[in-house]
Each structure stands twice: as structure tokens, then as C-alpha cells.
Write a structure and sequence with these properties.
The complex is a heterodimer of chains A (about 325) and B (about 325). Chain A is α/β, with parallel strands linked by helices and about 325 residues long. Helix content of chain A is about 30%, strand content about 25%. In chain A, the strands form two sheets. In chain A, strands 6-7-8-3-9-10-12-11 form an eight-stranded mixed β-sheet, sandwiched between helices. In chain A, strands 2-1-4-5 form a four-stranded antiparallel β-sheet. The chains are: A alpha/beta (about 325), B alpha/beta (about 325).
Amino acid sequence: MTNSTVLSVEGLKTYFYLDDNEIAKAVDHVDFAIEPGETLALVGESGSGKSITSLSIMNLIEKPGKIVDGAIYLNGKNIVDLSDKKMTEIRGKEVGMIFQEPMTALNPVYTVGNQIVEVLRKHKKMSSSVAKKRAIELLKLVGFPRAEETIKEHPHQLSGGMRQRVMIAIAIACEPKLLIADEPTTALDVTIQAQILDLIDEMKHKFDMGVLLITHDLGVVAEYADRVLVMYGGQIVESATKQTLFNDPKHPYTNGLLASLPSLDKQTDRLGAIKGTVPPAHRFPKGCRFSTRCPHVMEKCLHANPDLIPESDGHEVRCHLFK
Amino acid sequence: MEVKNSEDNTRIADDVLIQVEHLKKYFPIKGGVLKHTVGHVKAVDDVSLTIKKGETLGIVGESGSGKSTLGRMIIRLLEPTEGKIYFENDDITDLSNRKMRPYRKDMQIVFQDPFASLNSKMSVSELIEEPLLIQTDLTKKERKEKVLNLLEKVGLRADDRNKYPHEFSGGQRQRISIARALAINPKFVIGDEPVSALDVSIQAQVLNLMADLQDEFGLTYLFIAHDLSVVKHISDRVAVMYLGRIVEIAPKDYIYNNPLHPYTQALLSSVPVTDLSKKSEKIVLEGDLPSPSDPPSGCAFRTRCPLAHDRCTTERPHLLNRDNGHSVACHLHDNK
């Protein structure tokens, strides 16, 4: 961690305590850091723990879930034990957030303008006339040419892509150093997806933010991320720069994911599907969590979960095949 | 795709399973105190196409393009406003529900959401047996055998038959939906975003399964999806829809290697790819899809088209054959 590190997550464990005394280890010892101007992608399938990781950072874990261990340094300050009240001051101010479904994230009864003004008044203590002016500037920045009219509209009058632009305007209103984008374009059409991801990228450069991009789409990772963490079973199984991950993937799960993708350039008769399904977080196999689906499974994998170890500079893999 | 007039068309070519001509679906918009019809959403607006026996025709388009509405009309789950639908050599456009019944056996659909499309109170064997009860005279023993056989075909275990849908993951539920669709040996199966709700490793399993079953049973597929790489993988030919119309249709290699319509070009360039060396310039389209209740005059794509010119405002381009079954609806390509 350097002085400028925006976010540093160390040894994060978020467990869910289920009925009949079972424990779902949704996030199980995750470490990573984000620097300013960097996009770190967290990629994985449903149940991998990627969204719980982002909710943990924002302290939005609800019962029966709990952060049981670890530290989360936001701009150098550990926020893992802060009270709800203190966290409310941080969310929206020091961390901007964009979610998959802008319709549920926006309040349907308030105008677009009201929702941006509210954030500015609360966190920046602006007067309402100053905040309104700033709201119009922000909307212009995210691509509403007629922002003076847009501020009077309600979310339902906007398309999905437009709503996501409003979410971005709210997220950057206080010029946070960290932006968390959790599947920001999953609900959008592909031509709109390109617009929104380009906009996030532009805002990242403009405000020198660190971006945590959570996605299941490896194509999105390849085009927008700088570094990538592949998650499986609540743990990081591979960590690398984008170039290394796509040119020299090591973990059998990463390889399986890449082989599962139908390609636009190549024609393959059969896709290299990974057999079976992701085990639920309270039924992880003993040993390596990918062992039930891995084509290279060995005796050792059934007993010991491998550590995340450096394979080369900046490239880490959690697999017994690599020592 | 052949452009024909419905008047002079009394015979469908032998190798064609489905032919639709000038198909339209307009949904009325009611307004005012008296709920008069104040306009129409033109969900599908004059679509003609053929699907050959044993082939997979993919339909791609964004939300609101009319691709699902088209699929549902073809198998008569929705009544067309205008146009004709032929199955093999028979005009099925206006058949009553009773007369449709023998045809229903030949056409099945698999939906996107395997959580909503399976009755949660029925066990797997009941779910798969239901179409057999309705459409066949098989005895109880024969039905049971058939269910076991189908379970094996779609990659589920025999002991799974007594379980209920909630006990399965999304991918396994989609396997149940497929087994149910195949139970009565259909000729034609529509997949309406059948893998969109699945994780990529599971999506690959289901796509492989659909390809295997097509080979084994000689099925004809209409595969509707928004994901261009998935459609490319599974299809023989691909139609691109925009605001209720087909803007381009061709064998898939033509569509993906030499797209002619500016919309197809933009769509393809928008897909994020994992091959870092193949990063090409994106054509980022301005704005959103216009409302299908008030589509632009002339070419429906002109409001977002980087190459639009005067003629596009006044004249609607027709879908014209360029070569070898590559048809495109764009004034840039009609040689005038």
C-alpha cells in the first residue's frame, strides 16, 4: 500500500450464519488494492462472492451476514468498524456507487434534479441554488445536452441507459476517489453498454478515481480493466494484469471460463464448458474449492486448499499445479 | 431469403419448414377517458423470412426490436395483425385452437427464465410427462421410459425425476425445459433467450446440449438472443432486427465477416471481445432506440445512423437480396 492507494482490502472475510448452524463463507480471505486512475475488475460467476465483496466494502452486509475478519482501508483509513452513521457520511461522498438496476437504485417519486441536489447538499453542504447549478453541470458532463430540462424529469421518463447516466452523475457528484461499479451494464443493450462503459472510463480519467468494476463479462474486462481478479468460491483464484490474464491464463477455472465463451472471430463446433455447477457457499468441498469441477484434479486437491502464490511478477495463482 | 408476393405463392419449397410473409403485430395504445385506441406499437412491422429444415436461424436485436414477438407469432402464441405463416406446406395463420393442436406437437419453445416457465408444484417427471399425456397415446409404462430416456439425453440423472424445480440450479432447470420441449418429438424449436440467464460456464453446457440434440433429432431451430457471439456460435443464418423490422439477413459468415447494414456494423463493433490483439475501433451509436409507437419516417435507423442522408428520411428501404442470400435494407446498398 502506498500513500495514494485508494482502497486496500486485507484479509476480508464475510460469512453468513444460516439456520441449522451452517456457515456460508461467501468471502473468505480476500486481499487487494486499487490505485488512483486504475480499473480493477472483479470477475466471476454467480455465487463467486464478487458482489458480497463490494457490499462488504460499503458496509452494506445485512444479517445473517457479517464481516468476521479483515481490514478495509479507504484513502488510508480503516473503515471496517465504523458506525452506520459514519458510513452514511462516507457512502456517496468518498465512494461513488453504480449498481446493475438503475430503476431500483433511483427514487421514483423524486425528480432527477432533486436526487443529485440532495447528495450535494448533504455531503458538500451546498445551498440549494448552488447545488442546482452543479447538478446541471454534472448532467451535462454525463451526456445530457438539455440538462436544464432533464433535472425536472422523473426516472421513469428516462430509458435504462439514461438512468444509468444519472446514476453516474450522482456517483461522481462529490468527486470521490473510489467508484464501485457493480455489473453497471448487465441490464443494458450492447450499443448502450458501450456508451456507459466509455463514460465511466472518461470520468475515471477526469477525476483520477480508482474503479472497482464487478462483472461476469470477460469481454468487458478485456476492454476496460487494467488488472483482474478472478473469484471462485469466495476466494481470489487468479490475479494478474489484463494482458497477462488473457494472454497467459494459468488457473484451470480461468481457462475454463475463457473456453466457455463463444467467440466472434473464431468458429468452434463445441464450447469448452466447465462441468457441474458452482457449489453453494455452505457446501464448499474440502480442499480446493474448484476440485469438483476441475479437469486437472489431483489427489492433493481433495485435501488441501492451495494458497494464492506468485507465479511471476504481479501474477498470482491459487492452484496446486503451480509451485 | 426470397421476397415473394403472398398472392402468387401457393407452394412452399420442399426444404422449407417455416415461411412467414409480411408479418405484422401492432399492439393498440389506449388513451383518454373512453380508452380509445390512440396509436399503435408496431412491435413487428412487415417481416418475411423462411427457415429451412434442419437449420438454425438466429435472430439478434436489442430490447424492443420485436424479436420475441416475432418468435411467438410464428408458433401462434400471439395472433398476427397481418401476414401469413406457413408450416411445411400448410397455412396456419388463421387456424382455430383445435385445428392448431396437431401442429403444436411439432413446434415447441424454450423460454429465458427457467424459474418462471416451470410449474413449481410439479415434479420433474410430471413436468416432462405432461406433454406426453396431452399429445400422445403412450401407456403409463411407455411414458415412464420416455421420461427416463429424455432425462438422460439432457444430462440429468434418473433419480432427479422425483425432485421439484426449486431443487435445481438455473442451468439444470433449463435442461428440464429442454427435455419437456423435446418430449413429443417436435420438428421445430424456438429458443427465446434460452441461455441469457445462465452463467457463462453453464451457458456453454446448454449450448453444447442444444447442438447435440439438433444433430440427433434433426431439429430446426429459431434462436432468439441479444448476445451476438452466442447467436454466431449456434446459427447457420442470422437475421438482425431493429424496431420491428429485419435490417439484414444472411448466412452467418456474411453477417459477421462482411456486415452491410450500418446498424449491424455498429452492433458488432460494440461487443466487447476478449482477444486483446483484435481491438478494433468501436462505432458508438448516439442515443437510444426510438419508441416503436412513433418510429422515425423513412428508415427507422436513420436517427442513430452515422451515414444517414436525405433519402433515408423520406423513403423506407426495402430488404433486398445482394448476393447469395445476403439481404440488407439500406439505401447505401440498393444501387440507385
